[in-house]
Design a protein that fits this description.
The complex is a heterotrimer of chains A (338), B (235) and C (531). Chain B has 235 residues and is of the alpha/beta class. Chain B has 7 helices and 11 strands. Chain B has helices at residues 40-48, 95-105, 110-123, 139-151, 169-186, 197-203, 221-234; strands at residues 2-11, 14-24, 29-33, 55-60, 63-67, 70-71, 80-83, 157-161, 189-194, 206-211, 214-219. By secondary structure, chain C is mostly helical. In chain C, helix 4 runs parallel beside helix 16 (284-310), helix 8 packs antiparallel against helix 11 (191-206) and helix 17 (313-353) crosses helix 21 (399-422). Chain C starts with a helix and ends with a helix. Classes of the chains: A alpha/beta (338), B alpha/beta (235), C mainly alpha (531). The interface between A and C is large, with 60 and 57 residues.
């Protein structure tokens, strides 16, 4: 066996080690961002930022399995040794949790000025942008579903599905109901859901697939899941629930840009946050397949993306929702059967 | 009993055996003598049926068993016994099981199996090792078991591929005597391969001298001895 | 003196970087707030979910193992001992699912079965819908893992059969046909190898994260990942990883006490007379058809699903351009990881095979324990160990990923090098020793050159495993250090299917590199020994 193979391997490995070390420790103009928004939508925005500013972006993305809290929990784990500079949350509840745990730092971006006050933290710990809405994705041929109470309607017994309320935006939605309705009414609703045979799926994506495949009639999902399915011509419709006068309204969940306390690149972090909060970023995310709703007034959107001012939103205090979310964890575990 | 007619065999274009013909009579002890690489083991393995000659025929009791590359009779049907150079005792079977394997494969009744094995082990003075495993036996004991395994099948032809080459001188001598005794008792036709001249001359009724894949001479022991002596003189 | 000191130091370093994180994890779970507390464990084992997960994990592993052995052993025999045509091609084909991250096979099946997939066009949408519905869950997970791990059984069977002294089989052939010979002689002799193959399949299935995750089948590794990532309670999350550790311990005990007892002597026969193939005669066409059917089901359908979905060259170019960094990192980290594995394997394998210390068995057990432990658990341990300001230079760099590889796959390097050293007579070193040559010189001048082939094979196998790793990397990769398998996994949420399919094919392409190199090495060595 020729020694040359070994020499090749040794040379190659040395080159790799050198390359790895130099790229890790070289002083570069960079920013580290932890991202809960789907990589397919967030990565192009971050790449555009890189191109326009010359700041190298190092990103860490979430997975479906981590239910959009994986990177958040990494941030919590790294509290005493922060690696990230910015957190791009895909909904504000996680942002509030980070504020409560002392992970985030206050920053008032100039681009936050025109964002409506319900969608940003008054103390500057997080700012919302590009929102999703909790909507129904429903079978096109069947009757319209207009309220989340349709989940408890006997007519639709065993015909509805929703994502596991222990994870992701569904948890936030359940926690929001608890804050708006109070514990008693919310628990009664949850019991009725079970009695009515609502199927629990692993994610909003799976819920959408089950409705598309006609295994169920409707599901409460995020608007990006529903818009995607509609745009792909999968024979479903998107419905904003509880939009009537005096109705509960649909829960709006904007993305949130958060500055991490103790990050190593604070200036670049602020630049990135400014970029994320810009109307141009919102325009891109509206036209992307995630079809997210801009919070800045007057941002151009495609025809199938509703304007924020046209949606009756559920009146929630995200801080209260975040607090309630943690309170009801053991109740939800019991409800799911853990 | 055994006829080898014009048999040739090549490996990667190199001729291992070239146009070899010989006959082995019933109850004869034919010894094939030659240096390493002369083709003697190849010849033996062709008789066993593990490899086929490229050209020529092999007949056992006038039945063609191999013909120009075609195997016309499988090894298990040729009624041939073999003792390998490295003995090839199955390590996961004890002595009894090593001997019984072939008998059971031929569907011999159990009581006959027991009887035959006990008889042959008595003859080999190995009966007390019936339940021992190969790794528990000495070199000479393993040799006896290998021989017993071949003989218990009552083969028409017994093939032996340098079975004594790994043994010390004394053991070699004593086992030669045993082989002669057993061959006489069972009256088995024997084809024995070796590179050792003394071994060949002490065991053979007839000797075949091979070199470079060809038969150099066939004859009685005296003739073979003279042939070799003349070869040295000429060299 | 130098020998013992060096080996002790390297063993200590290995234990420190690889085993200590996992041990720390366990201790932390027992002392969550500084005081001894097993409340988490009590809750864990009282929960019905734990037992459901245990049942799911074990049934998944057992059924996959049985199927893989049932198909793999006969295939190993067919490909190594018979005159079946295209054996080499079949061996390569069946190996493909093993060289890529396993979830890719699941992705390929998914694309084949969806209403727009090619199977729907062939079988009709109704049939493919039923199949798709069945695919998510236990059945699909078993199908995918069987096709992924089948090559382990096939190749080990072929390897061990190749070591059986052909004289043992020929001695049996004098009185029986091939079937009885295989049944009573060859297979019993290689039974330790078959058992090892089964154990490996069981272990790798038990620790599998990607496939059950994609197919929504709840098993412990997925639960450990989700618990750690999705819940706020880290202590409970650590406790959830413990059942996996307990099962892993049982595997180590079985491996140590059962496999080591069976010690039949197998003689190396490469270079001796060629083995005569088993003639299949009139069965040849039927067996060939059967093997082709299995190849279609286990390999070609999922591959075709990926290829057809990836469709255009433009998608390929765009996806390749966007993923170049991840591809480069995958190759780089796998190279470094493979070198580290070979380094540890070189010394720990030596320690094991030469029995330098009495506790060599303990280190071997530790490496096997880590190999059997799911990558997600190792990842959690590494985060716990290295996530401090003082060790940030490791935690924030690729070093933490490399250490993860070392922990997870050290057993491969150690066992392969131990097997290599077993072929090198100790007398070779002794001769050098009595002439006054020191240990390091003996190692570099005698042992390493003689172990050349083993070193390169160890490196290539280590490279392959590091390249396709998902479980460990997923948990611990620092920002900007994603590898291609991780990138594919994170992109799966809502990315166009064409992109995912293309990425999977890119992964397959780069995984062929070590496989091709291994093939060249073995072909050359076979050619050399037959000359």
């Amino acid at each position: 066996m020729p020694k040359k193979y070994l020499k090749i391997i040794i040379f190659f490995t040395t080159a790799c080690v050198f390359s790895s070390v130099s790229t890790t420790y070289a002083r570069t103009n960079e920013v580290v961002v932890y991202v809960s928004e789907d990589q397919v939508f967030s990565e192009p925005i971050l790449k555009d930022f890189e191109k326009e500013t010359g700041v190298k972006v190092k990103a860490l993305y979430d997975t479906e399995e981590a239910k959009s809290t994986g990177v958040m929990n990494r941030l919590l784990a790294e509290k005493n040794n922060p690696q990230g500079d910015v957190y791009w949350a895909n909904e504000p509840i996680r942002a509030v949790v980070l504020k409560q745990k002392g992970i985030s730092a206050a920053y008032f971006s100039p681009n936050a000025k025109d964002i409506p006050s319900p969608f940003k933290d008054p103390e500057g710990y997080w700012t919302g942008f590009s929102a999703r809405v909790r909507v129904f994705v429903a079978n096109q041929e069947r009757a319209a579903f207009t309220s989340i109470c349709d989940y408890t309607d006997e007519k639709w017994e065993n015909k509805a599905v929703m994502a596991n309320p222990l994870f992701g935006t569904t948890t936030s939605w359940v926690a929001a109901l608890f804050t708006v309705w109070g514990d008693e009414k919310a628990k009664a609703f949850m019991s009725l859901l079970k009695q009515n045979g609502v199927k629990i799926s692993t994610s909003n994506g799976e819920s959408t697939t089950l409705v598309v495949n006609k295994q169920f009639l409707f599901a409460l999902v995020d608007s990006d899941d529903a818009t995607n399915a509609v745009r792909s011509g999968k024979g479903v419709q998107q419905i904003y629930p509880d939009q009537e006068e005096g109705g509960l309204g649909s829960l709006i969940l904007p993305n949130a840009a958060i500055l991490i306390k103790g990050g190593k690149n604070p200036e670049n972090a602020q630049r990135l946050i400014d970029y994320l909060l810009s109307p141009e970023t919102e325009r891109k995310l509206a036209f992307a397949d995630c079809a997210q709703i801009p919070l800045h007034p007057g941002v151009q959107t495609p025809p199938d993306v509703k304007k924020i001012e046209k949606i009756r939103s559920m009146k929630v205090d995200y801080e209260a929702v975040a607090k309630k979310l943690q309170e009801i964890q053991s109740y939800l575990k019991g409800w799911v059967g853990h | 009993m055994l006829k080898i007619e014009n048999v040739s065999k090549a490996y990667h274009g190199i001729k291992a055996i070239s146009r070899v013909s010989l006959m082995v009579e019933r109850a004869e002890r034919l010894v094939v003598l030659g240096p390493s690489g002369c083709g003697k083991t190849t010849l033996l393995r062709m008789v066993a049926g593990f490899i086929q000659p490229d050209e020529g025929k092999i007949l056992i009791e006038n039945k063609i068993v191999s013909d120009s590359g075609k195997c016309l009779m499988e090894p298990e049907d040729r009624q041939v016994g073999m003792v390998f150079q490295d003995l090839a005792l199955w390590p996961h079977m004890n002595v009894y099981e090593n001997l019984a394997f072939g008998l059971k494969a031929k569907k011999i009744p159990k009581h006959v199996v027991h009887q035959r094995i006990d008889e042959i082990l008595e003859k080999m003075q190995m009966i007390q090792f019936k339940n021992s495993y190969p790794k528990e036996l000495s070199g000479g004991q393993k040799q006896r078991v290998a021989l017993a395994r071949a003989l218990v099948m009552q083969p028409k032809i017994l093939l032996m591929d340098e079975p004594l080459s790994n043994l010390d001188f004394e053991l070699n001598l004593s086992l030669r005597k045993e082989i002669l005794k057993l061959q006489g008792e069972f009256n088995t036709t024997m084809m024995y391969v070796t590179h050792d001249r003394d071994e060949a001359f002490s065991l053979a009724t007839r000797v075949v001298i091979m070199g470079h894949g060809q038969i150099q001479m066939i004859g009685a022991v005296k003739e073979a001895s003279d042939y070799i002596t003349n070869l040295y003189k000429r060299a | 003196m130098a020998k013992r000191a060096t080996l002790l130091l390297i063993a200590f370093i290995f234990i420190l970087v690889s085993f200590l994180p996992v041990l720390t994890l366990l201790i932390k779970s027992l002392f969550p707030h500084g005081n001894f507390f097993i409340g988490n464990y009590v809750v864990l084992f009282q929960s019905s979910r734990t037992w459901i997960l245990l049942w799911n994990s074990l049934s998944f592993a057992v059924v996959t193992t049985v199927l893989a052995l049932f198909l793999g052993v006969p295939m190993g025999i067919l490909f190594s001992k018979t005159n079946l045509p295209f054996k080499g091609l079949f061996t390569l084909l069946f190996t493909i699912p093993f060289i890529v991250p396993s979830y890719m096979i699941a992705v390929g099946w998914f694309y084949a079965l969806v209403p727009q997939g090619f199977l729907a066009r062939i079988l009709g949408t109704q049939v493919s819908e039923i199949m798709l519905h069945s695919f998510f869950g236990f059945r699909g997970a078993v199908l995918v893992m069987t096709s992924v791990l089948l090559p382990v059984v096939v190749i080990l069977t072929m390897t061990y059969l190749g070591l059986v002294d052909p004289r043992l089989e020929e001695a049996a052939r004098l009185s029986s046909g091939w079937i009885l010979t295989l049944r009573k002689i060859s297979l019993p002799i290689i039974s330790p190898g078959v058992f090892l193959a089964g154990l490996l399949v069981f272990t790798l299935t038990l620790g599998e994260f990607g496939v059950p995750s994609f197919l929504r089948y709840s098993v412990f590794p997925v639960e450990a990942f989700t618990q750690f990532s999705a819940f706020y309670n880290f202590d409970a999350a650590i406790g959830a990883a413990v059942p996996l550790g307990i099962i892993t311990l049982f595997i180590v005990i079985i491996e140590r006490f059962f496999l080591r007892k069976k010690n039949f002597e197998l003689m190396e026969t490469i270079g001796k007379e060629a083995r005569i193939p088993i003639e299949l005669n009139q069965w040849k066409p039927w067996i060939l058809i059967l093997v082709i059917i299995f190849a279609l089901v286990l390999v070609i359908v999922p591959l075709a699903g990926l290829i057809i979905k990836s469709s255009s060259l433009a998608t390929f170019q765009k996806t390749f351009k966007n993923s170049m960094d991840s591809i480069f990192r995958s190759l780089m980290y796998a190279s470094i990881g493979a070198t580290l594995l070979t380094f540890f394997g070189f010394f720990i394998g030596y320690l094991l095979e030469r029995k330098v210390f009495r506790f060599a068995w303990a280190i071997d057990s530790v490496t096997f324990f880590l190999f059997a432990l799911p990558g997600t658990v190792i990842g959690i341990g590494l985060i716990g160990m290295w996530n401090h300001p003082t060790t940030n230079f490791i935690y924030s760099s690729a070093a933490v990923i490399i250490l993860g590889y070392a922990a997870q796959y050290a057993a491969l390097g150690e066992r392969m090098m131990a097997a290599t050293y077993a072929q090198i007579p100790y007398s070779m070193e002794e001769v050098a020793q009595i002439t006054g040559v020191g240990w390091f010189r003996r190692l570099s001048g005698i042992v390493a050159p003689m172990a050349n082939r083993g070193l390169i094979t160890t490196w290539l196998v280590g490279f392959l495993f590091c390249l396709k790793d998902v479980g460990v990397t997923m948990m611990i990769y620092p920002p900007g250090h994603d590898t291609l398998p991780v990138r594919i996994f994170t992109l799966m949420a809502n990315s166009p299917e064409e992109t995912i399919a293309t990425l999977c094919l890119l992964m397959l392409g780069i995984a062929f590199l070590p496989l091709g190199a291994l093939g060249i090495i073995f072909k050359k060595s076979r050619f050399k020994s037959s000359c």
